[in-house]
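Long-time lurker, finally posting.

We've been working with General transcription factor 3C polypeptide 5 (Phyllostomus discolor) and I want a structural starting point before designing mutants. I don't trust myself to interpret raw outputs, so I'm hoping someone here can both generate the structure tokens and explain anything notable. Sequence follows.
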Amino acid sequence: MAAEAANAGPGAAIPVDLQRERRMVCVEYPGLVRDVSKMLQTLGGEEGVSRIYADPTKRLELYFRPKDPYCHPVCANRFGTSSLLLRVRRKARRQEGVPGPEAHPEVTFNVETVGIVSTVYKFQGMSDFQYLAVHTEGGRHMSMYDRVLMLRPEKEAFFHQELPLYIPPPIFSRLDTPADYFYRPETHHREGYNNPPVTGENLIGLSRARRLHNAVFVNFEDDEVPVQPLEPAVQTWRRLCTNPVDQKVEEELRELFAIRPVWSRNAVRAKISVHPDKLKVLLPFMAYYMITGPWRSLWIRFGYDPRKHPEAKIYQVLDFRIRCGVKHGYAHNDMPVKAKRSTYNYSLPITVKKTPSQVATMQDLKQGLGPAGTAGLRKSNSNKYKLKDSVYIFRENALPPYRQMFYQLCDLDVGELQKIIHRNDGAEETCTERDGWCLPKTSDDLRNAMSLLIRQTIRAQRPALFSSPAKADGDGGKEPATGESGEEEDDDEEDEEEEEEDFKPSDGSENEMETEMLDYV
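Top reply, 14 upvotes:
Generated this for you. Predicted structure of General transcription factor 3C polypeptide 5:
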């Protein structure tokens, strides 16, 4: 190849042997590299670069001060490319026997392919703000790194030393690319102009248009419950109910409310297959929505008032959240049930945005009607939108799909839990906003029993979490005693009270309720 490069004239093509087995990754480093080892440290080392490369959703981080834990990185985006990495050597040989300036050296080039570059990381964003651990007083700058960072075991005096207040924010900028806000100049009116009164009709700046689903919301304190839907809700559903599939869904939902007057939306979606957007219109046509009280976040059949029927206690809602922590035997990251969203996995700006969900099409809303809607297509769509039973039923030896769940008491499919619910059957006196028709603190007893069942399930599925000596000593190598009485059982209960911190039951997930309510307001 060197001989061909030497004999080739200006502008001539030179054949190159490709090393196809050598795949390379290119990083366009935003700086002048003088020391390769120090440059790799700013990228997290070879191990850090390999870890980022293995996950296509991650962005490569560059820390200009890799030893500073308060350094905020600049991020690189990942792109695919088809490039070559070449090693070109230029050799110059003087001509012998030619004196003076007429002796032009003979130049040859040696071209060698190192590998094929299929991925490149480009730093296209701006560097984030930096917040140094420095205290400024009287024009003097004092470093506080040796006071706020504990690099080795320290004595008690280290924790009682006087320090200036230093609380750096965890996140400065959510985005690393500039954006134009397109501010408009303030409008200047003629003298004597008066602004119109602000009303709901001319208010500008609403986050979105009002959704006209016409749901009826009822509070626990309200005296009466609606007996029929709003007329706009009826008209909206009749306008969208344009095919036999919709009529079948309407009949199925009517049968569900005839069998059971109170349902959650997830339970309905697990029973019948209906497009979520169409269900938003159908539910206000069939039932009203309870906002507060023991039936909050549930849909109740028109004309049915659970506050007047003691047997309606089985339809009450239980806001259950899986307890996690070291005292429960597993930490946040070890829990088999992962959270939907977590502050521990904040994705901006080091993670690539996921592809947004597709918007519902008219084909989905009409559910395969018309000439193209064949029987096979309808059959395949019969369970297209159905959810699993685990989204609303709690069973023994099974973990909930999410860390926070809304269960109706009748859907707690465990005999022990049903005994707690029916302790006062026939003796219900008053319906309270907190406990409904159940005995006081029934929700607390249910949560404790469910937490114990989940702990046993996790122990069976992942025994390694409970195999350490410390955890074994804390658990005593056995399950809590279930006898009637005894000194040993009393001791166990006292130990459990010491380890267990006060658990404050939730009055309902505001986020979950607001999410569903925002579909109708």
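Before you design anything, note these points.
Residues 343-347, 354-358, 365-380, 469-511 have pLDDT under 50 and may be disordered.
The radius of gyration is 34 Å.
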